[in-house]
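Now for a concrete sample entry.
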Amino acid sequence: MKKQKRDLQERAFSRGYRAGIERRSKDLAPPEGAMRDAWLSGWRSGRSDHWDGYTGVSGIHRMVV
C-alpha cells in the first residue's frame, strides 16, 4: 500500500520547526509564497521552544514529525 503524500505546508512547517530548534537562520526559508509563511511559522515555534528549553530529551514530546 502506498503512503499518501503529506500536505506541503505541513512539511514546510515541520522543516521550519526543525531549523528553529537547531538555531538556524530564518534566511534559509523558501522563496515567497504560502510555503514560506508555513516555514516561518514553524521556525518561530521552534525558536520559542528552544528558548523555553524544549531541546534534547525534554523536547521529544514537542517534536513535529
Q: What stands out?
A: The helical segments are 8-21, 34-51.
